[in-house]
Amino acid sequence: MSEIVIIDSGQMALSLRLPELGMPEILSFGSEPVEPDPLFEIERSSRVNGMDIAVPSNVLLPTGGMGFFGWPAIAGHRGGRDFVAQFGGWTVLRDGNQTVLKAVDSVARLGIAITLTAHDSGLISMATEISNLGDADYQLDRCMAATFLVPAGDVQVMSFTGIWGREFQTRRELLGNGTWIQESRRGRTSHDRFPMLFIESETQIFGVTLGFSGNHQMVIDRTDDGRRLVHLGELFEPGEIVLKPGESYRSPIAYAGADSQDFHAFVRDELTQWPGGAMSPRPVTLNTWEGNYFDHQMDSLKAQATAAAEIGIERFVLDDGWFGKRDNDTTSLGDWDIDIRKYPDGLKPLVDHVTGLGMQFGIWFEPEMVNPVSELYKAHPDWALTIEGRPILESRTQLVLDLTRPEVSDYLFGKIDAVLSNHAVSYIKWDMNRDLTHAAGRDGKAKTSAQTRAVYALMDRIRAAHPGVEIESCASGGGRIDYGALKRTHRVWTSDCTDALERLEIQRGASVFVPPEILGSHISASPNHQTGRRHTLAFRALVAIAYHLGVELNPLELTDEERDELKVYIETYKRLCGLFHAPGASFRMEPLDGRYVWGAASAEKIVVIVAQGPQMVGEQPAPLRLPDEVTQFGGQWRIRTVLPAEPQFIRISEGQKALLSGAVSFALSSAGLAGLPLPMLTPESALLLELEPIKGGKTHG
User: Fold this and answer.
1) Are residues 285 and 416 in the same domain?
2) How far apart are CA 217 and CA 52, in angstroms?
3) Domain boundary pick from 245, 270, 295
4) I need a surface site. Which of 22, 60, 517, 539 has the fewest CB within 10 A?
5) Mean pLDDT across the chain, nearest whole number?
6) Residue 679 DSSP class
7) What pLDDT is attached to residue 696?
8) What is the Cα–Cα distance from 393 to 544, expressed in whole angstroms?
9) What is the dihedral sign for C-alpha 228, 231, 237, 243?
């Protein structure tokens, strides 16, 4: 019988049959592995006018040709020849939870290695390596990282789209007979085409994501028996990957998981590398951008830090404007020397003041970019990625530095290292504010792929030199949120839009693949700087409180009443963040009539946040039925705390008042079956409910 290889994570199982010639056949992909059986040895037959010997179409990384007529996951050629690949002689190498499948195509003179890993979190990951075993160059046009199988029948795909300031908008569509393709050519993860999908068939639901920050492809192809293959991988520019004899291409890593909790567990337990080996409680952060922009005045910044410490803020991040002659966004990117006009004694007095208050100090960099109006560009215009003879296209008056050149990477490392080595910096906000266009080196050849890997290398180098420093990934907000970036960073700036109404949908979408403690969410000023909307401090705070809480305003501009109220929400965050950020505790519900619900639950405490976006259409809201992952704790409960003290209800009954005051106890199972009859909130308002079990009652039934 053929050799069967099983990759089983406990939550998902991938079962493969290794043929003598051809790609590994996917026997099953789901919750249970297969057992060896003679059924798997029966050859299939095709239509009368099909191939005399039917070629399996549901395989890992189909290569095209030789009887396979679907979308090839691997493609290339050697000067127009060797355009068909057919691997054979498969071997299996196992090392713990990792399995490597290797094969050779002796005709095309190619080698392949597919690395499959069963993760403790329940995820299965896959990556592909293609090697040139010939004596001439081989142009690789396509090499997907992974292929996953979807059962036959109706299939719905949930993808994410958006723009700057409105990322992670979920879209659902029913797949047809054709091939579904999503491609991003922006040179970064992008705001509009995130490499993340959830697939739902009649019998199975699972998610997939690609751990890569550059150009990508995600393809869902219908095979000849009605099933579908989901492919994920890097998207190459023409001629971008040419393998010299003996060279190899290694794909990014793709991941598949059964649900959000498994993806969250993977990020927490394996992907994110924390200083000291473990995440500390996420500090409340003050970011200076919206409170100051480019107006840096030492006395004011010190006073802001003092005011921030007084209300419980724990990290002070100095944003853009501290270097070169950076008075606006048209100049000085690349000139990473402290602006002596604003800081005549350097940054140290500010850093010492912040750390003397017991806060961490963080600082903003945008290493990958350069302004044409800068000392760096004046000295090294050839350091920018451009194509000779083509217009130099600016975006936000920026060009992209060629980090693949050692002298450029060394220059940037030296500048960043100097700031970190000479100051007590514990945090970097690493920004990237433009897409890549016609990104080529001095030889005129595309370098988007190499540029992405060079960014990773620079991040890795900085982290190795300063292992205690955390990094936030920002790219015009949410433009670089993926598992490639998260492998090297500890927080993402979810969106440049801090409007709480917009954040309801942004954070709900981002939470599908990223745990809440990684998602930066800030309380900003009213009116909001991006949309002009006015919101209560309660609404702004409650929308942000379950994530990595921050403040994005000048605390000196708060009234005494606002300062006292903000202090309450910061204290509440510190008291509850251990639950909000606990493994497996968070939950979220689908919006209903504009009402968003999310929170976290344990056997000792349940926190439910209810936010009303637009005005409800219904005469009254449906009772809030808590999900199974919350009601599983059982027992009698009551509402112990409500924030704000006076929620903005349209109308409230005496019974609802008693419920919210804690005078009514209830079975948690009833909160799942019948639901909590909460009052209707006014549009753009929210409340937080803390539920506690009645002592002595059954709490695990």
Assistant:
1) yes
2) 33
3) 270
4) 22
5) 96
6) P
7) 65
8) 37
9) negative
Cβ(160)–Cβ(168) below 8 Å: yes
Are 412 and 372 part of one and the same domain?
yes
CATH assignment at residue 231: 2.70.98.60
Residues 130-136: what's their mean pLDDT?
98
Single-letter amino acid, residue 166: R
Which residue, 438, 462, 493, sits at the end of a domain? 493
Residue 558 lies in a domain: no
Distance CA 322, CA 363 (A): 9
Domain at 302, CATH number: 3.20.20.70
**Encoded tokens for 365:** 């960099």
Q: Which two tokens stand for residue 505?
A: 């949908």
Q: Does residue 410 fall inside a structural domain? A: yes
Question: Among 235-244, 387-396, 408-417, which is the least confidently predicted range?
Answer: 387-396
- Give residue 39's pLDDT: 81
> What DSSP designation does 284 have?
P
Distance CA 499, CA 522 (A): 9
Please count the structural domains in the chain.
3
Domain identity same for 260 and 382: no
Work out the number of other CB atoms within 10 angstroms of the CB of residue 93. Answer: 11
* AA letter at 171: R
- Output DSSP code: residue 277: G
Q: In this structure, are 266 and 302 located in the same domain?
A: no
Alpha carbon distance 69, 222 (integer Å): 11
Q: Is 351 helix (H, G, I), strand (E, B) or coil?
A: helix
Given a cut of 90, is residue 74 above it in pLDDT?
yes
Residue at token pair 């009514």:
664
Residue 669 belongs to domain spanning: 587-693
**549 closest CA partner among 504, 579, 518:** 518
Statement to judge: residues 343 and 252 lie in one domain: no
**DSSP-derived secondary structure for 489-557:** -SEEE--S---HHHHHHHHHHHTTTS-GGGEEEEEE-SS-TTT-----HHHHHHHHTTSEEEEES-GGG
121 Cα distance to chain centroid: 17
With respect to residue 194, please indicate whether it lies within any of the assigned structural domains.
Answer: yes
Q: The tokens 């949120």 sit on which residue?
A: 481
CATH assignment at residue 603: 2.60.40
Query: Domain check: are 259 and 296 in the same one?
Result: no
The answer to whether residues 414 and 434 belong to one domain is yes
CA distance 200 to 196: 14
For residues 374 and 422, give the distance between their C-alpha atoms in angstroms, rounded to a whole number.
24
Provide the token pair at 390: 């083509």
The C-alpha atoms of residue 435 and residue 261 are separated, in whole angstroms, by: 31
Packing angle, helices 537-544 and 560-580, rounded to 10: 20
> Are residues 229 and 295 both part of a single domain?
no
Catalytic residue positions, numbered = 431, 496
The backbone region for 652, taken as left when phi is positive above 0, alpha when psi lies in -120 to 50, beta otherwise, is beta
Beta strands in 202-252 (DSSP E): 205-211, 216-222, 228-234, 241-243, 248-250
Say how far residue 161 (Cα) sits from the centre of its chain. 13
Residues β-bridged to residue 610: 597, 687
Distance of alpha carbon 439 from the chain centroid: 24
Query: How many residues are given for the chain?
Result: 701
In a domain, 527, yes or no: no
Mean pLDDT lowest for which of 2-6, 65-69, 168-172?
A: 65-69
